[in-house]
Amino acid sequence: MFSRPSERQFEQTVRAYSADLYRYAYWLCHDRFVAEDLVQQTFERAWKHWRDLHDMACVKSWLITILRREHARLYQRMRLDTVDDDPETLDLPSCVQADSQLELEQMVEALPLAYREPLLLQTLGGYSCTEIAAMLGTSVGAVMTRLTRARHALRAHLAALEQTRIPK
């Protein structure tokens, strides 16, 4: 027979794993405030199901799983605002040059199809990671990974372009 975890054990668990969960959440989202919210939501969800936990030995992996799912839910709820205006009619910042639209299109086109497809579905189509995963026949995690890699590749390319444009 197993014993159900107590409130005291939950408090000890919060103290023991808060820092680890925060580090993992920050690694996922790279935003201090979002990471704090994710940890809070993780412990809130864990508290709701605390009495259902049967094995205290696997509490850390259980909490990490909850945190990962809360992070995924964050992006499922997020909807990007899309604009149907012609790019030439938009008021762009002065730092954006006329050829930047073409450069951006070329950068996106240079991405591997596995990265380009989910990126365009999310940014242009406004689809959630779950919807994209269903369309592409893959997992939500794979979609999130591909989106992250696509953004990193675009940032790296933009940084390289900025380096070449800096006047000496």
UniProtKB/TrEMBL annotation:
InterPro entries: RNA_pol_sigma-70-like, RNA_pol_sigma-70_dom, RNA_pol_sigma70_r2, RNA_pol_sigma70_r4_t2, RNA_pol_sigma_r2, RNA_pol_sigma_r3/r4-like, WH-like_DNA-bd_sf
Alphabetical list of CDD domains matching this protein: Sigma70_r4 (cd06171)
Family from the record: Belongs to the sigma-70 factor family. ECF subfamily.
Source species of the chain: Undibacterium arcticum
Name this protein carries in UniProt: Sigma-70 family RNA polymerase sigma factor
PANTHER family: RNA POLYMERASE ECF-TYPE SIGMA FACTO, RNA POLYMERASE SIGMA FACTOR
NCBIfam families registered for this protein in UniProt: sigma70-ECF
All residue ranges annotated as the RNA polymerase sigma factor 70 region 4 type domain in the record: 102-153
Lineage of origin: Bacteria, Pseudomonadati, Pseudomonadota, Betaproteobacteria, Burkholderiales
Pfam families, alphabetized: Sigma70_r2, Sigma70_r4_2
